[in-house]
Amino acid sequence: MISDTAIWTTVALLGAATYAIRFSFLGLLAGRKLPPWAEEALHFVPVTVLPALILPMILYAPEGEGWAEPHRWLAALVALAVGIGTGKMFLTVLAGLTAFAGLRALGL
Amino acid sequence: MLNAAITKRDWSGPPPPSTPDTMLQRQDTDWAAPSARGVRAGATAALQVVVAVIPFGMIFGVVATEAGLNLWQTMAMTVIVIAGASQFVALEFLTDGAPAAIAVLAGSIVNLRMAMYSATLATYWTGVPMRWRLPAAFVLHDQSFALSIARQRAFPAESVSDRLGYFLGVGVLTSSVWVVATYAGASLGSQIPAEWGVEFAVPVTFLAIAVPLIRTRADWAAALVAGALAILLSDMPYGTGLLIAAAAGIAAGMAAKRAGRAT
Residue B25: pLDDT above 50? Predict the structure, then answer.
């Protein structure tokens, strides 16, 4: 159970930090440009952070120890294939969730 | 004399043509205000991305409710942060028992890409005054940025007022839909049975966001290095493994890009 203090602190600070990032070059740093290496590094932020979050969530069991059951990573593979094939976010989520429920019902 | 002429001018209308005289004024005064035409064009264009925003907002509402957030907390987060991926990330860290500071740090890192959006938009917004930049920054997110850049490429000669209007049209509409969809998800949340695998919606949502972003070979190299390290380092406390994995992935991506250029 998450404490109320933790939630409200996160809401306030994450909101403030996110606004500061958004406003950065539009306001506080207006007229300044990002150095090319920083722009290149920032491009790779979502490309690395998201896979780094996804893979452990898929491979390890959600409640505690050990590897996840096969339906978990099989469903993720289905979603990955649909994502690469269609490029449509909603179809990707739908395919992943359907495969997850279906494969689990099959006992995988 | 020149200053008097500037202050008397009615700045609410369309921007003046770029004669040498007005170019001189632009440096003194920011004149641009969003045009109604731009707002309409932006709101119309936003309809195509709203289809993707609705399910994500609903999933966030459901997941936040399942994590134990009440309606007020869920809605406060969605209204104040308005950045889906980072909201999911912060929530995931809190659910794992990480302190708020770590959840904020992880969420902020996910949003660092918006510094790049901010820097890119700033180059198109010459003449936009602070009183518009302040509220506009609030609705800067993936959709408003992507559509604005596409618009900029399609109509490079469009006036700054139309550009600003277009950006606000997309930003305000998509943000409002995000908030309403979250509310719908949060209201439904407690009624959705656990067997549906709502918890699995979080990694699948991340996956759906990540896949379209990973385009080049360097992107794949960065993603694979980061993902593999994250698996190995997942026992490290409070997401520190995530930070190391992301940093190594970024370095790998930049190196792969150099190598690709060299050959």
Answer: no
